[in-house]
């Protein structure tokens, strides 16, 4: 199948960028977006050009590295699916497809389709951890956790940190990401001793790096992990709880 690509090319963070048109004549419906870019780069290199810079790692929908904007939608046309699982079978022969980096003030472009998502790392540093005593590991049955509680924690821990929620949000908010983090930790007993401290740290980082949430809900539609909108509410819930318990680690 023949696919015409309009790809954002930007040599560096300081240089201006623009769309460049390429044609891939030998694409197949089974190709994923990263595989299509691999094929495009083969063509560009064979012609003596500079390949398109983009990120990918596992290509199994786990790492969250591959995120790009496809036809103005983070990741691509299929809802709740990462870029590496978006296949050309969802397009038609002869289609024109526009590829560009995630667009958000919090994600400055590094080069071409690569963005700097370290703002998410700073949110994690704000409270995405638990402090534990080192030494001999406790017995597995020391802390009893119900199946339902464990499953809830795992559902929110499924966030892969791709940043699509931020790119989809008109305000560039990261409440789905940060709410998933806070809910994951507050659900389990290991995260409760520092619950208030964690909420303050995470919210401080979110307010410094990202825009405010207006509950549009676009974030939920593009999230590859299917994090529910309830995560957004958790940000304000945890912060209000921390305000009432100021001075306490719980």
UniProtKB/TrEMBL annotation:
It comes from Luteococcus japonicus LSP_Lj1. Keywords: Iron, Iron-sulfur, Metal-binding. This is Succinate dehydrogenase iron-sulfur protein. One of its GO terms (biological process) is respiratory electron transport chain. The keyword Chloroplast does not apply. GO terms for molecular function: electron transfer activity; iron-sulfur cluster binding; metal ion binding. The keyword Cell wall biogenesis/degradation does not apply. It holds the Pfam family Fer2_3. Belongs to the succinate dehydrogenase/fumarate reductase iron-sulfur protein family.
